[in-house]
Protein 1
Amino acid sequence: MPLLGWLLGWLVRAWLATLRLTVIDRTSDGGTAPWVLAFFHGTQVPLLAWRRRRRTGVLVSFSADGAWSTAVMRRAGMVVVRGSTSRGGARALVALVKRMKAESLDAAFAVDGPKGPYGTVSPGVLACARHVGGVLVPIGSACAPRRVLRRAWDRMALPLPFARAVVVLGPSLPADTPPEQLAEAIEAVNQAAEVALAAKTLPLSAADRL
């Protein structure tokens, strides 16, 4: 398993390196406060190709899929803390907060938890931002050509090699932002990414459905 995870991490890194990436940065925070990047499940693959401003911590579940994700995230330069909302979540969040403070990390959260419901903001991302004195940064993506895993609950979008990808960072929000407002901000940056992508590519007649 460790060897397979290592190989998968290298393959994903090579795959991401082929993407033709455009980044649109609309953040309004020019200070040193930690960023807590907030995104929806299913949009994360192009985000890994974005060169982050500083080292970034992520929570990864203890599931079997989490073991693979850990290898990929580490190879992408992420600081991985294992835990989820269902197993060891509170301890993992505390561990992540401690590392953010000690190592001046940002963090990234799929806000809709390990199993959804899609687009619903879980409390962990807000708690993290409060405890580190950080700001919430909604982040979204779009890519083409792509394959969309329609049978997966998060409908993950997988860019094909050499695909165009757009990452949009929205204006930063305070840590006490209501969950519904954060969800709307994340939806807005995803839509902005799709608009920017459509301006440079032909419409997708078929994101392949699996």
Protein 2
Amino acid sequence: MDIAVIADPDTATGFRLAGVTRTWDVSDPADALPILDELFSDEACGIIITTERIADNIRERIDEINEKKKGITPIIVEVPDKQGAMVREIDPLRELIKKAIGVEM
């Protein structure tokens, strides 16, 4: 399965340097919506990585995708961007792990 990245230009470049070939530079979070929909319908895509700031702006669509998917893929992982990690009340990655394995970490 493929890894895809939807991120700001600096973060996307970092992933390209790490060898990820499916990357999209997004300056406006609204531009991420059609890309996210395309990746969700692509069965070859197993992991979608996006930055926390982009994800927060398209949270409703991410939640819809997570509710619609039949299995665990594609997994949407949110990473900090160059500005650092965001302080959150609920950690989406922790919730994903809890849902997948049923254990609170």
Protein 3
Amino acid sequence: MLLHVIARGKIGRSPEADMFKRYAKRISWPFRHTELPESGGKLPDPQTPCRMVLLDERGEQISSEQFARVLERWRDQGVRETRFLIGAADGHGDEARTEADLLIAFGAMTWPHLMARAMLAEQLWRATSILAGHPYHRAG
């Protein structure tokens, strides 16, 4: 299953970008990263039906194990692509939230978008490591 991170704004050259790249390289599943303009710009059309996950302050706070199990279930159901959307500074609209398959939050605190992107890549690496049975998924 393709793990596709779609984020508003450019990550550029930054410590957060380095961290994002570091974890993205470790992900053992097919992985793609798409950047969209801060405002406007449409999501790329999926080639096949996909699942949509929004990083959103109103989302569920789930453990790394629970996150891994969601990905495992979708993979085993034959889902070809899961898209992870990171919105602009004003977040996602109600329509996007309604259409999403899952809303997740990295805690109740507000995180900078670049940091959220790096945290998502780390959690995707951790989830795929859990599913591969690697004992080192508990290390960072």
